[in-house]
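[Discussion] Sanity-checking designs against the backbone

I'm trying to build intuition for which residues belong where. Below is a structure token string of 478 positions. I'd appreciate it if someone posts a full sequence so I can compare it with mine line by line.
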């Protein structure tokens, strides 16, 4: 039941209609059952895992709060979460690496690879369980009812690919009895759903065949400009693919009377590596910061401690994205970028001040440098093996290989979409200001709904025209 399928929209219509027709006391139970049906439609045996993870962290919270030494008991619950994630997501990868080494020295496998199906969304809902348990240990979260906590973990819009929520961001909304769906929430929910579907079917899926073809070519057949363009194109593809899912998730939740946190804030307009991660997959970035980076730094405020913590936290972030050495390299690369940023800003405080209030020229220069460094990293994220990624990276750094082997369509499409991405913050601010003044003049009051209606209709038509079947979202594999 993918978000870009007619089945999902029929399911969502039934859920939303039933939710607001039912008595208030039955709505939470109805949402929980709908969430179980949604997850079970993928691979129903893993419903046991989903319910079990929620039960583990709920009963774990009760066990932790009953002790004077919360940290010791909490460590057991956290270890159980990590063990479940490692077993289902990383065991086959680790076994494959052991067998690879065994082949070099013994000529055969020594470990049996499990070969089970990766549970959808396991990284997301286990991270939510971990954050809740940590907050209980820190006395920042209380114990909630068993079924409310089940709904917190299983709530279907954010279940498969986030946003990653904390207890305080969702549980109070679940427990609220008098939720209502007003006209603004309904319109905003529909707007997010339509724009999300448009970004997925028209933009992200439009890039997919061109990007797949580019990365399928041998590195030796590509020029350095080709490699940078295909890295930028994949960055745009994954941005629109994942941000479209986030918009669909937030829109679906809004129609259910629930507000989810935003996940993207024009990340390709960032002016530093730190700024990029403050804008990209923001719910994960906050999780990495608060539950990995800050504890790793601890009470040490030295530059070395911050750089080491950034390297460790971002490498683990890479591992979270996938069981493969390409993801390890991608995470370590971003760790190096953030550590380098800390080094530069610690020696030149003016750079840190410029990152918060830069001059136009400095902003453009730092933005271009950040975009180039981030785009280069996508080579590791997208490549099928670490060796392929290294070949592409080395080839990209050889400026004498400037010939162009890729189609002009990829170049043109990348340039047009990239220009739109860079202009988006300015256009968004001006449209917001125009909307804010809609009540001042009759003309604006007429133009705003007219433009929104035409835009919605156009996006629906284009989405139906460019619908290429139920293509999977990239982040479903995580």
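Best answer:
Here's mine. Compare freely.
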């Amino acid at each position: 039941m993918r978000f870009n399928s007619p089945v999902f929209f029929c399911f969502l219509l039934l859920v939303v209609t039933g939710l607001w027709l039912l008595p208030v006391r039955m709505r939470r139970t109805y949402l929980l059952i709908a969430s179980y049906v949604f997850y079970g439609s993928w691979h129903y045996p893993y419903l046991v895992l989903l319910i079990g993870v929620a039960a583990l962290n709920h009963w774990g919270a009760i066990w932790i709060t009953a002790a004077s030494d919360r940290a010791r008991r909490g460590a057991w619950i956290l270890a159980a979460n990590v063990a479940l994630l490692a077993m289902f997501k990383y065991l086959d990868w680790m076994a494959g690496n052991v067998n690879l080494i065994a082949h070099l020295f013994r000529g055969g496998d020594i470990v049996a690879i499990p070969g089970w199906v990766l549970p959808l969304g396991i990284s997301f809902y286990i991270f939510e369980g971990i954050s809740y348990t940590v907050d209980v240990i820190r006395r920042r979260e209380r114990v909630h009812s068993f079924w409310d906590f089940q709904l917190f973990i299983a709530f279907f819009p954010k279940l498969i690919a986030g946003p990653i929520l904390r207890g305080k961001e969702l549980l109070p909304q679940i427990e609220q009895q008098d939720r209502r769906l007003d006209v603004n929430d309904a319109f905003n929910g529909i707007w997010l759903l339509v724009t999300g579907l448009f970004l997925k079917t028209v933009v992200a899926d439009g890039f997919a065949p061109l990007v797949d073809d580019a990365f399928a070519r041998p590195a030796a057949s590509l020029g350095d400009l080709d490699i940078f363009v295909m890295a930028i194109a994949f960055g745009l593809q994954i941005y629109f693919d994942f941000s479209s899912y986030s918009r669909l998730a937030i829109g679906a939740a809004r129609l259910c009377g629930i507000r989810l946190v935003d996940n993207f804030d024009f990340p390709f307009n960032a002016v530093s590596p730190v700024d990029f991660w403050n804008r990209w997959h923001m719910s994960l970035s906050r999780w990495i910061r608060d539950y990995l980076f800050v504890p790793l730094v601890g009470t040490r405020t030295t530059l070395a401690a911050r750089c080491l913590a950034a390297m460790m936290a971002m490498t683990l972030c890479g591992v979270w994205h996938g069981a493969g050495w390409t993801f390890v390299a991608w995470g370590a690369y971003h760790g190096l970028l953030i550590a380098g940023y800390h080094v530069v800003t610690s020696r030149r405080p003016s750079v840190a001040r410029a990152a918060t209030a830069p001059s136009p020229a400095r902003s453009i220069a730092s933005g271009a440098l950040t975009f180039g460094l981030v785009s280069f990293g996508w080579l590791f994220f997208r490549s099928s093996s670490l060796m392929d990624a290294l070949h592409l990276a080395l080839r990209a750094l050889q400026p004498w290989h400037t010939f162009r082997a890729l189609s002009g369509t990829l170049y043109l499409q990348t340039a047009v979409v990239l220009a739109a991405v860079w202009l988006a913050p300015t256009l968004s601010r001006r449209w917001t200001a125009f909307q804010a003044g809609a009540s001042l003049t009759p003309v604006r009051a007429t133009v705003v709904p007219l433009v929104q209606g035409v835009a919605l209709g156009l996006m629906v038509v284009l989405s139906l025209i460019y619908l290429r079947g139920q293509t999977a979202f990239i982040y479903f594999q995580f």
